[in-house]
Amino acid sequence: MASTNKKPATATTSKARLASIVKSARDTMRKDAGLNGDLDRLPQLSWLLFLKAFDQRVEQVGETLDPDYRPAIGKGYRWQDWATDRDFSGNELKTFVNDDLIPYLADLRSVGGNADDPRNVLSTIFKDVTNRMQSGTLLRDLVNLVDQIHFDSSDDIHTMAFVYESILKEMRDAAGDSGEFYTPRPVNRFMVQQSFLKLGESILDPACGTGGFLVQAYEDLMQQVDTDSQRMRLHADIRGIEKKPLPYLLASMNMLLHGVGAPRLVRENALLQMRDATAADRVDVVLTNPPFGGEEERSIVGKFPKGYQTQETSWLFLLAIIDQLKKGGRCAIVLPNGSLFASGENSIGARIKQKLMKDCNLHTIVRLPQGVFAPYTQIPSNLLFFEKGNPTEEIWFYEISPSDERRGYTKTKPMRVEEFDSCIEWWGGERREGREEGPSTWRVLAVDVEKEGHNLDISNPHVGEDLVHHSPGELVEELLKTENEIIGLLKKLHTEMIGSGE
């Protein structure tokens, strides 16, 4: 195999040019019989993009800055060694990728157990990577297209990140059919903003998916960075856990494109990882949208204390997160209405909420409109914000309603960032000062929640005041919506009762 040993490319890739290359790449992949739909094509493109970006952003930059830099990928296996060799025919390339490259990358080992060693990320990714393309000729064409993309300057990275976000959105849309609910960008941006992150804080998303919360947190905190040491500390403080190989690959690529060469991502069952964690593993901030509606295997459930054992994933995540936080740590988490509803002394959900309010100050619940997570689910959801260390005395609720011109959200008309503006203004800054009750806000005392069996599914007490202004059609629509919510909650409660043996 020939090695061109080319110098790093100096060309840049405009947004229009990049979009054109990505379109050509996807058209090329559509011709291959081994790839079926975006759930095959987008991962194939992502691991190739990852290797190209890794070579330019990590290896070549490392060699430029440090004469003693030791590349993570050995000679002959770096992108510049094989991908740029145009004499490497399609069939030869396919054989090399399948039999040599992927096994080599999957078997990489970090030096001295160094957590910052990018070999950790490379080996974890490529243990689950398979070249699904059957045509060596089409693979050669695809590699040639990816090689036209450049990652030399910050402008290049920004451009690629922008286009990659659109790829991730399509990936999320495709994954939604298989039960993966990804957080819309306006929601994770709001949750990160209202968590008031600071440099030096450890930040974890235990269900990181494609890395949306982590990238948003990183972008926000990079604005506070002044030195290289602060930047390196930030890289170490942004952490994620993801169980499935495909989202792990996409999250790693997402972080790499935003400048993190060795992302602190773990491919593991987050519940198992958090239950086995020590006090030294606790973090300052958790930002997450855990899976809900699923059931965990009994070996995982058995890791939790008796009295809190349930197969409902959202309850287990909430319980694990409480233990994962340092004293004074804080969390912003997405939970469905059903999780807020469960009440009664014998309800596991109620006991977990009781622990939450005893160990943490659950200061704010933001109630999202129905359809925010469309097209994945119509289940209404909530954003809970709490701090560990002091018990809850009162909970503020803020209900966000769709603007007047829209009655809900769809895939083509998602929630907009500005729809959180009024809530941000009401919030009262980091200390939550000056909050007042109004048509969309209300306050509930913790003692009253306790009397109601720790039911947190508390409706807006002001909503009835406005009913006289609604048309008959709107009232019927609201009644139907409420009826569907009640049916969903009853089903959820019935499932939980069966699971607890009641």
UniProtKB/TrEMBL annotation:
Catalytic activity: a 2'-deoxyadenosine in DNA + S-adenosyl-L-methionine = an N(6)-methyl-2'-deoxyadenosine in DNA + S-adenosyl-L-homocysteine + H(+)
Record-level GO BP terms: DNA restriction-modification system; methylation
Domain of life of the organism encoding this protein: Bacteria
Domain N6 adenine-specific DNA methyltransferase N-terminal: 18-145
Enzyme Commission code: 2.1.1.72
A single MF term (Gene Ontology): N-methyltransferase activity
UniProt entry keywords in alphabetical sequence: Methyltransferase, Restriction system, S-adenosyl-L-methionine, Transferase
Residues annotated as domain DNA methylase adenine-specific: 157-462
Protein family according to the UniProt entry: Belongs to the N(4)/N(6)-methyltransferase family.
Protein name (database record): site-specific DNA-methyltransferase (adenine-specific)
Organism: Parafrankia soli
